[in-house]
């Protein structure tokens, strides 16, 4: 596919097409756990529904504090699919850095793994922008996102008005010369990254 064919494609388009392409094929492997593309699409649609219900729309901010897990990527995908911005908090980052990112990114939703529930509650207490704290599973604080989405109908993966110049990933630097700084990557930039990666590895269309 040449560069012109990618001109108006959003990263949301790329994700939606990928999640819906392979059905029962394995999309994620996490230890002994396997998740198919169909299951991933279903979870992503439910996460979209949850984010929309809690005020996250195009231009909104979502942050997460968690080790790598399929759900973290699917939350990220859900944010991209509705045109929101996603930022990941480094698990080794300081509380001050986490609060700075939460405020600077204007995130209204924070999702943490249960092991970081106390840290999440502290971020919410100190960052005035965060309105909702969710957890990937039951915890003593926050609301269990897994339990919440289990009762929701999946939202469509497309049709949320996403534009190529919408900021998708607000990626923060390490802050070695001061506070972490948000690097703005648009939907278009993320698509170009995918295109460059495919070209670099000589993947067939």
Tell me what you see in this structure.
By secondary structure, the chain is α/β, with parallel strands linked by helices. The chain has a single domain, classed as Rossmann fold (3-Layer(aba) Sandwich). The chain is 40% helix and 20% strand. Helix 1 crosses helix 2 and helix 4 crosses helix 5. The relative contact order is 0.18. The model has no long low-confidence stretch (mean pLDDT 92).
Order of helices and strands: HEEHEHEHEHEEHEEH
Strand proportion? 15-25%
Strand order of the largest sheet: 4-3-5-6-7
Structure summary, number of beta strands: 9
What is the CATH topology classification name? Answer: Rossmann fold
Note the main sheet. Answer: 5 strands, parallel
CATH hierarchy: architecture: 3-Layer(aba) Sandwich
By secondary-structure content and strand pairing, the structural class works out as: alpha/beta
| CA-based gyration radius | 17 Å
Shape estimate = globular
Low-confidence stretches: none
Number of domains: 1
Distance between the first and last residues' Cα: 7 Å
Quickly name the level 1 CATH class.
Alpha Beta
The helix tally amounts to 7
Give the proportion of residues in helices: 25-40%
Average pLDDT score: 92
């Amino acid at each position: 596919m040449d560069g012109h064919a990618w001109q108006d494609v959003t990263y949301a388009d790329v994700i939606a097409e990928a999640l819906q392409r392979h059905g029962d094929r394995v999309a994620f492997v996490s230890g002994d756990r396997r998740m198919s593309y169909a299951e991933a699409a279903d979870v992503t649609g439910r996460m979209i529904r949850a984010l929309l219900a809690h005020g996250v729309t195009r231009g909104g901010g979502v942050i997460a504090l968690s080790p790598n897990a399929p759900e973290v990527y699917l939350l990220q995908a859900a944010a991209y699919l509705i045109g929101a911005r996603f930022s990941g908090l480094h698990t080794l980052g300081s509380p001050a850095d986490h609060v700075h990112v939460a405020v600077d990114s204007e995130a209204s939703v924070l999702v943490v793994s249960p092991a970081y529930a106390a840290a999440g509650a502290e971020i919410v207490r100190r960052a005035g922008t965060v309105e909702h704290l969710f957890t990937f599973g039951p915890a003593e604080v926050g609301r269990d996102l897994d339990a919440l989405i289990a009762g929701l109908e999946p939202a469509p993966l497309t049709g949320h008005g996403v534009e190529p110049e919408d900021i998708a990933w607000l990626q923060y630097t390490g802050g070695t010369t001061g506070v972490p700084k948000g690097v703005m990557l648009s939907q278009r930039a993320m698509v170009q990254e995918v295109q460059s990666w495919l070209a670099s590895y000589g993947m067939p269309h």
